[in-house]
Amino acid sequence: MSAMNAFIDVGWNEQLLELVVYTAKLIEGEPDFVAKCEANLQNGDVSHIAEILSDLIKRSAVFYQGGKPIEGIFNSLSRLVCMIKPDDAAGLIKELSVAIAAEDVQGQEEARMKALGNLFNTVDLASPSRFDVYMALLSLVKQTGNLSAVRASFSKLDTWVDDWQISTAQVRELFKKLYEITQKVGDNKQSCEFLRKLLASFEGETPEALTAVKGELYPHVKSLVASTLADPEQFSVKNVTRLKAVQLFNDDNALALLSVFQSGDIPAFKSFVDTNKNILAELKLDPAELLRKTQLKSLTGLCAKSDVVDFKAISSALEIAEEDVEMWVIDSIRVGLIEAKVDQVNSRINVTQSHTDSFGDNKDWAALKDRLAAWQKNLSQCQRVLNTVKVQAEKQHGTRITQHMGR
Known about the structure:
Blueprint: H1 12-26, H2 33-43, H3 46-58, H4 70-82, H5 86-100, H6 109-122, H7 129-144, H8 157-164, H9 168-184, H10 188-200, H11 207-212, H12 214-230, H13 238-241, H14 244-247, H15 253-263, H16 266-275, H17 277-282, H18 287-305, E1 308-310, H19 311-318, H20 325-334, E2 338-343, E3 348-354, H21 362-405
Antiparallel strand pairs: 1-3, 2-3
Helix pairs in contact: 1-2, 1-4, 2-3, 3-5, 4-5, 4-6, 5-7, 6-7, 7-9, 9-10, 10-12, 12-15, 15-18, 18-19
């Protein structure tokens, strides 16, 4: 028997009747179940067919007691449900998805995930019902901790959300559940991204609406700040601080800590931590690790301001020994914050590029203007050299032609 469909060799009405008969053998105390379903089947309209399918879904827990593969049975039900017009099938698809992912059913999680995956792929690409199937699949993933079953889908979520045309409330439900699942399995980077998307869903809200849900938002904002600061490879915080839901708490110590980190000002960071000793414990942050991140952020800021940075300037800004500067530069290069070469002879570094998100004030624009002017000057010099070489090459080529013609 194919797992894809337990009753695939017969027509849809025969297939439905076989499912009814099979279910009747497994249930007790309903001697007229088959007769009732046959009467509805003979009636033939959509509402009666839907009633039969709904009855089968409601009794689907008995399928685990039978001898047929559970995936095949659910695939058969999925095929029948999806034969109904989308508008009429939407409720049945949700009902079936919830039944397959039911928490009171123990075991056969892999087969149930496959059945939900097959149902998801059977439903039309743009159907909002895909949301219901995916949420049910996430419920199973949350129960089992098997994130690999859905990880490949994460890169497609933004496209799917647009295709499904689901409500804002459903978008929030989706990203909240994804955040909870990824947090539960310890995937900090992915959970941080889903939490950011959850908070980003509030961008279109009015200030009054945001204030009304301020208490609901605060734990999420606090968790996002903590996750961002705890990630050893996350140095850009603009995609967090620009969120309206986050800006709602600009006077909070968690946001103040994020702001101090973003500045890369080591004395200010140390002073803030000394004055607000409880905040790092509240956010479950390692003081030494966060100081290290802030020092790397400080180094990045220095490199953004100048192409050449002395060891002494780095030592002073990061509050480290001058003999340790080279190690910090190498570490900064390793995590991708800067591109630079160490000039040991002159105790300085030559910066090629610095990746910072603090660009924006007049000094930054002035520095960019000077750098672009220098690049333009270098390009002009290169162009003059190329023109000279071209002229010389043309002269040499002309001389060779003349010599050849004179022979």
